[in-house]
Every structure is written in structure tokens, then in C-alpha cells.
């Protein structure tokens, strides 16, 4: 067996007490779709697994005071089936729908996806574009909020330590006239992580035909999901047009620094994918809720 004890808890307090008792030798498990494989392959080691899958207080999707709040134990299937997300946060619903297979989506949780910290994880890319924050419990009884922009340290590494901390909630603010979309390229019929994915979130000023805010997250083109800051600034510089989208896509191309990969392709190919997919995903995001382009190349939203 890849662990010595498997303990299933009924309360948050019980889970945190066990983590405190075992002092780094116990680890939380939710769906286990990543962790069990990592334990089998001896990429991670643990003496005690603490199963938190029976904590219904950590499964919810709700809107409160202009914010969406999601419990960390919410499954990808629940996200993908949420009418609230499909109405207001399409990028996250699309991302959850893209994860693995139906079996994986039924047990895999958004919190587990975050803690696993893979740079191309679909929901992570969407949440980075949404400028999300997480609420984390510590085993000393304290609680802290961590912005997504500060959460990831490298491939498979985040600021959340599942041997002493529990991810409780993810939240983000809804923007005025919000448009969003996920761009994704993966191997045909494959259930592995994508070759490239892009999360885009825009806030539109319809009167002036400009953007109030623009967020673009691309992965994997760095050890962590990457916000394309220069591309975002470009989108805010003037009125919407096809030329503006092309300029922003070029800025994303310039910022991307993917390594050569046998699985995903060489650097030149992946950089070109960033350019093309950023442009296409911007067009798709603007087309939600009625955005269209005309023959002159301007874009009316």
C-alpha cells in the first residue's frame, strides 16, 4: 500500500486536528485523481491520508454581492453543470467541462486541481484570468486569503501545504458587461493536460466601444500559469478593432517563453499557437452576449 492509514473525517475541525497531530506526515485527499497516481509513482510520499470528501459545507457555487464563491470540494461536473456559471462566467464552465473524462470530472475537485498546481490545469487557467482569491485554513486555527497571482511557485508547487492547510473557498468578482472564453488545444481523444489553453476575461464599455478591463492567462508557457500583462495593456489602449486584437495577440506571442517539449511541440510552434489562439479566443469572448465584427474590421459590442 502507498500509505499506512486512511482516515475519513466528518468535520473541518477533525481534519485539521489530524493534520496537526501527525505533523507533516498526513495529507488531505479529496477526489484523489492526481494524488493517488503520484503516490503510486512515488512522486509523493505520505503516511496518513485524510479523506475530506464527505464535507458538504465545502461544496457550493453561489453569487453574493457581485462575487461568485465556490467551495473547494465542488467537483468539475458540478461546475460544468452550473447554470450560474454558464450565464455569467462561461470561461470557468468551459474549463470544468474540458477536464479529463466524465469519471474524472465526477470525483475530481476544483480545490484539488488548484493544490496540484499544474500550470496547464484548465480550471486554474480560468480562475487566474478571473483574478480569483482562495481562502485557506491553517492547522493552528488561523485563516488567510491568497490571490491567485501569488499562489503558484512552480510546476506542482503552490503556497498551500496539504499537510498543514485546507483550501476552503475560491472567490472572484463579476465585472460590468463581462465577456469570457476558454481557448484550448489538446491531442485528439486524449485525456491528458492540453497542449495550450487560454483563459480570457473582458469588461466591456459598450458606449465607447472600449474595454474597461482585460485579463489574459496562457498556459503552459512558463512554470506557472502566466498573465499576459502587455497584451492586456494593449487591449485597453484604444477602441476595439480587429487591428487591436491582432496587436494584443502579438504582445502575447512576444511574452510567451515555452520550452521545447516532445509532448507539446517546440518553442517556435508553441509561441505561434499563443498568437493564433489569443486572437481567436478574444474574438470568441467578444462574441458572447452579442459582440460582432463588421466588414471594416471594427468590432461592435
Summarize the structure in words.
With 301 residues, the chain is of the alpha+beta class. The chain has three domains: 5-51, Uridine Diphospho-n-acetylenolpyruvylglucosamine Reductase, domain 2 (2-Layer Sandwich); 56-173, Uridine Diphospho-n-acetylenolpyruvylglucosamine Reductase, domain 3, CATH 3.30.465.10; 178-300, CO dehydrogenase flavoprotein, C-terminal domain (Enolase-like, domain 1, 2-Layer Sandwich), CATH 3.30.390. The protein is built from twelve helices and 16 strands. The protein has helices spanning 12-22, 35-40, 76-80, 83-88, 90-98, 102-107, 110-116, 122-129, 148-151, 229-235, 242-255, 267-287, and strands at 5-8, 26-29, 48-51, 61-64, 67-71, 133-138, 143-147, 152-154, 157-158, 165-173, 178-185, 196-205, 210-219, 226-227, 292-293, 299-300. The strands form five sheets. It has a five-stranded antiparallel beta sheet with strand order 4-5-10-6-7. A four-stranded antiparallel beta sheet has the order 11-12-13-14. The protein is globular, with a radius of gyration of 20 Å. The termini are far apart. Residues 290-298 have low confidence and may be disordered.
